[in-house]
Batch of 3 targets.
Target 1
Amino acid sequence: MEVIVASTVAVLTAGGVYLLLRLRTFPVILGLALLSYAVNVFLFASGRLAIDQSPILSKYGEATYTDPLPQALVLTAIVISFGMTAVLVIIGLAAYLEADSDRIDIHDEADAAATPDPGETPESLEAEGRF
């Protein structure tokens, strides 16, 4: 069981990092979501992987129980990550509507206009107002 959970955390982390390195907004948001899922699974697994056991001690002093604190942390982390994902989607949508592109590494148009192409002459640059 631990190997499956560890493999799941590794796959989610690898997929999240891969998507974070993309140059588009939506894959970056998905990468952050995958990383948050990986952290949630890791936190959940830190409370011992026990099956069919109660989260609290029984009144007869039975010592087998699961720790409820990681479960509460995961529930809180899910709510926070959902809210942050919604905020990032709205910010990404606003950036897309403003820039007409969802690329992350947008170069400044003034910098692009200031560097002439090798085939352009000073007269053509002056006619366009870029010289």
Target 2
Amino acid sequence: MRNNFLMILMLVLSSCAQIQSSSHQSESPTLFERIGGLPVLTLVVSETIDMSASDPKIKRSFDGVKLSTLKQSVVDQLCVLTGGNCVYEGETMKNSHRDLKVTSAEFELFVETFRTALNKHVATKEKNELLKILAPMKRDIVTD
């Protein structure tokens, strides 16, 4: 009887240990959290769009665009893509860039501006993770 009790106790403790172990794994911070959340995303996006909208080589893509609305939309999208608790209600990248005729050169200049802002505010590991998530969007943005 005592052996049965010990066996059951060991099984229960083992199950508890497995549950605790798996709950610790799911509690690892999201990329959104590691980046610094909305304050950092908002700062990076704002700097990137402000610099891009004033750069003579790529500013044509921002002509007639309400920059505050664009910034919020990009922040929401990045928040969702990095695991934050936001809602992105904007267009797909393909639809929102369809008529802009963005060239590869313009895209690369924008990415360089984005990297510059990320370098100021985000650690290298998180910056690279974010860029890896965003890289496939190039095919939906560039039309040349």
Target 3
Amino acid sequence: MRFPDVQAADHHILADGRPAFTYFDGGQVAVGTEADTPPEGARQVLYEGAEQLKGTIAVSAIVAGSAIEKVVILGGMTAVPEMLVDTRNFVRPIWRDGVLTLVCQFARNGVLVPFEPPNNRPCCADH
């Protein structure tokens, strides 16, 4: 299902059942359900183990306890199992090469945070 007037893929979009993932297609936001196959770069919203990804947890726990198969650091480096991720209680992995992947970036004291923040705001919104 496509939404021509929507400018950003938002997890609050509801369409034809539960929205399993969102993606851009032809300049429009599209929503896939659990019955669909996500395309490359799709942002997964519903996945096994998501409800367990709260607080600060090890990369190994993310991979062992959820559908996320890989955790990478912005720039392409694979995170090691012992690294910690402060989930900020909001984890939206994406599909890369057919693998559900969580992209992270460094925060304070070597702890990682998911690249997508829980409260997105448009660029330059405050100035």
